Amino acid sequence: MSAFFSWYILITLLGWITFPLAYKLFPALSDRGYTLSRAFGMLTWGYVFWIFASLGLAQNDMGGLLLGLIVLGGLSIWAFVNQKSEIQNWLGENRRLILTTELLFIIAFAFMAFVRSANPEIVGTEKPMELMMINGIMNSPTFPPRDLWLSGYSISYYHFGYVMTSMLAMFTGVPATMAFNLMIALIFGLSAIGAYGILYNLLSLRQTRRPELVEGSSIEGSNVEGESSVKPLSSFFFPLLAPLYLLIVSNVEGFLEVLHARGLFWKDGSNFWTWLDLPELREAPAQTLSWMPTRYYWWWRASRVVQDYELNGTWRETIDEFPAFSFILGDLHPHVLAMPFVLLAVAMALNIFLGGWRGNINLYFGELKISKTGFIVSALMLGGLAFLNTWDILIAGALIVFSYALAQVKESGWGWERVEDVLLLGVPVMIVAYIMYLPFFIGFDSQAGGLVPNFMFITRGAHVWVMWGTLFVSLFAYLISLTRNHSANWRAGIFSALGLVLILLAVMFALGFLGLKLKPDLINSILASQTLDVNGFIAASMTRRLAYIGGLLTMLALLIPSLSFLYHSKDELEEESSFIIHHSREAFVLLLISLGSLLIIGPDFVYLSDNFGYRINTVFKFYYQAWIVLSLASAYGTVVLLRQLRGVANVIFSVIVVLLMIVGLAYPMFGFITKTNGFNPPFEYTLDDFDRVQRENPDEAAAMTWLRSAPDGVIVEATRPYDAYSSYARVSIYTGLPTVIGWGNHEGQWRDGSLQGSRVQDVEALYTSPDWVTAQAIIQRYNIRYIYIGNLERSTYRVSEEKFNLFLKPVFQQGIVTIYEVP
Fold first, then answer.
1. By three-state DSSP, how is residue 742 classified?
2. What is the pTM of this model?
3. Beta 714-716 vs 784-789: how paired, if at all?
4. Backbone region of residue 618 per phi and psi (left: phi > 0; alpha: psi in -120 to 50; beta: other values)
5. Counting Cβ atoms within 10 Å, is residue 447 exposed (0-12), middle (13-18) or buried (19+)?
6. Rounded to an integer, what distance in angstroms lies between the CA atom of residue 715 and that of residue 748?
7. Nearest to 28 by CA among 351, 376, 410
């Protein structure tokens, strides 16, 4: 409990320290960055601490953390002094927003901490890897932090989120095994208020004296809201739909699990479930019917809705994770850690779109209409996301540059100049972001390759709706409502949407043709596995694409109107100022819908090459990004329709929303109950996973505790090739000491696999060889200090321990565990 409150107090104080700076940097937002100040403070503090430690200007210790906090505090004091009266007035006038934000944060943070305390185990999936990152950074004397699973090397992975976790843990004196669970809860809380703030800002745009005054406000200017404002569309209740849609509402699969468990729509032979073709659900329901899913790990299927088959019928698993699944699973992977900062990037894009960073930067090849401060903050944000979760650079970069281009549309209208705007901002800001985070990029050695054509794997329309139906219904209703009082350039929208699809199709064929010419052996092996020649392969692929056309048609039905409403003539919008302000709000939402739709469409044509060899990871990361932006747009559309519809239309839509909530909340309700055993932990509520280790294996827990306080050095422990998602490398995970080799397949994903060399074989030889000379050579090769022998080592190898007894001193012995130290 004390650890929870120490984190709450620290992150709340950080938000208040940062708010004056956020107030100055987000002049176009109604909340002036208040709901985002915690996330922005973490990003800024984290960057200053990390860059100072990376450049040798600070140490990875409390002194370095305090130095980073002093720099952040100094910037915020400067901002406060320059705008003291304005900030004081804003605080007095926005007490309800402040109170709502604070209540939402403490409730969300406490709720997820309670969930994790009922299920704190850091086991299974990639959670041990995530704990390894945190413990490794906390125990790294210098930066770049060392890779605990490949002694002698630093981390080659996007690990900024783990740096932030380690910072909070070190500052509050919390062990990594507890910080892991607290960080999950913190991410949930930060994402809740981040989503709330974005929707609040979208709904709070007011009619003002003249639109150009709103858009013309600079970073040095005052609040962009005009004095003669009308009642805003927002209240303090409706923006709560944004965190609900983002973090809690889920795909349809959980509701389908309920129907299946009840035996509905099932009959022997062909039926709805066999047509839907979701593993487990296409099998007959259990004999004992219930309204709650009882199948082991039933909640896992929701993250594996999309079903991919090769042309020969071979099944391929695809990941389509979404936030509610992540928090039920208790995952602290980079895509989860990055969520509050993706929301921060969305807010920055909205600030740019509304004109908050107006200014001029003269470049050699053109002029940027953005202030220098805004440019630097954008680079800080984009570089930070690349460091947090490199995949997120796509959606964040697109939002920022296209928001900038749309801001220019309101002044100059549509034209080819907007393409120039995108490039004029996008290229320089990415270069500056790269320079700002250069220490990370220098050591980053990803095995991700270029684009690969996707001929075989197409998402069925049924699976699109199972995955996205809870968000799509409100989005389609919202787009239909826009036809009543918004003009649209349908021709431009249709041609643009179809043109984008044709471009993707052309890129797919071009990449396929290049592959056939440059790598014929690889292409021929793929063709042979499908027992087809080139013409037959293309014909079969196109036939499947036509058979599964429902997915593409669904996405085009979303994309075409979104683009059509974005394409409009400037003269038409200038008829009345109220329409312009209203349109400003809608245009940004339409941008969110358009980008989210493209993220879903893209993997049906191309994907990024990686160690998996097919589109599993691209679908995973793109769909997750799409959920973030589409959930915000869907929440906005729901609020607008609930407030604007009248009479029967309002009743019908309200009923639809209630039904959607029933469908979308079935998964988290039953999922949290199942994962926490009905919120009845087997022993006690705790946030520290090490309590489980002590309970299950007290000898190993004692050995790990001893190693934590022992002098620093490389340890050796049992390993196996392709030993991921296992208990191997557990000593390095829990002690923060580097081991010779951990999960080798993950190291192969993060860097050149050849760097592992013969480590796996050498570790085995060290344990099994009776020859001390052989063992000594291996010890010297990897600079090993501690040789760990426990149950896992004895079950993995035939350990020849006599040589260690003869030449080394056992420095720890308890029960089944012995640790030898090399002099």
1. coil
2. 0.93
3. parallel
4. alpha
5. middle
6. 21
7. 351
